[in-house]
Specification:
This protein has 221 residues and is an alpha/beta fold. The protein contains six helices and twelve strands. Strand 10 and strand 11 form a beta hairpin. The protein binds cytidine-5'-triphosphate and calcium ion (CA).
């Protein structure tokens, strides 16, 4: 009822959101991932749909239900997330990158399961390759959507997050102290743009998502 009665400041707006971790395969049965739960991104997708936006959610491997009215695309690796996002990005009003994208992947994926050598030979060494930066690539499009980045930092929150915002060439970054927030149902956020900072005090992730979406609506109108 609450959602039904809510104002629709994002009616007619298209939003693309990434969420969750990525999974980078080593062989058919193993891979590298991280502890992102996807909860913040899914809450933002829900809040955006409630606000009337047409929402596409590109999700890494998570165990979460798709919010009502949201179009979901499931991916595994960072490269797959990049390939899903880039063709859609130019047609969006806003892009919100909440995904915890792996910075590196194993340089090669083995076709068959790696086996322990007979007689206990040495453990394998993984060579790593750098993944594409999805957010930076979207921000570099000729006519980019309004780009919102997320930054989980373990220290010097505002300073590191603002440096990241400028490095990626995006107007707004949302900072939080990680990794303590991973998997939790609440969070506290710091919004940083060229004008300054605004703190969204600790609350449940859906309430924070609704506040963030309100803030975004102002910027898109
Ligand atoms: N991001 C992305 N693609 C990547 C890496 C990050 O789209 N390959 C996005 C994240 O979704 C997030 C923002 O960039 O919105 C910042 O991610 P973060 O990992 O904090 O920044 P990095 O630039 O990867 O820097 P570092 O991990 O070294 O702090
Ligand atoms: Ca990173």
């Amino acid at each position: 009822v609450e959602a039904f009665l809510a104002p629709k400041p994002l009616r007619g707006k298209k939003l693309l959101i990434t969420a969750g971790p990525t999974f980078e395969p080593i062989d058919p049965v193993r891979g590298i991932t991280n502890r992102s739960s996807g909860k913040m991104g899914f809450a933002i997708a829900r809040a955006a749909a409630e606000a009337g936006a047409e929402v596409t959610l590109v999700a890494g491997p998570v165990h979460l239900a798709t919010p009502r009215g949201v179009q979901r695309i499931d991916v595994q690796s960072a490269q797959q997330m990049f390939d899903a996002v880039l063709p859609l990005a130019a047609h969006q009003h806003a892009f919100i990158a909440t995904a915890a994208v792996a910075d590196w992947r194993p340089a090669q994926t083995h076709e068959h399961k790696l086996k322990k050598a007979e007689g206990g030979a040495t453990a394998p060494t993984l060579a790593m390759a750098e993944n594409p930066d999805i957010l930076a690539a979207v921000a570099r499009l000729p006519q980019p959507p309004y780009c919102v980045g997320f930054a989980a930092e373990s220290e010097k929150l505002a300073e590191h997050a603002d440096a990241k915002r400028r490095r990626k060439g995006i107007p707004l970054i949302v900072a939080n102290l990680g990794p303590a927030t991973f998997g939790r149902d609440d969070n506290a956020l710091l919004l940083i743009d060229a004008q300054g900072r605004r703190e969204l005090p600790r609350s449940d992730k859906l309430s924070l998502a609704r506040e963030l979406i309100q803030e975004l609506s102002k910027r898109l109108s």
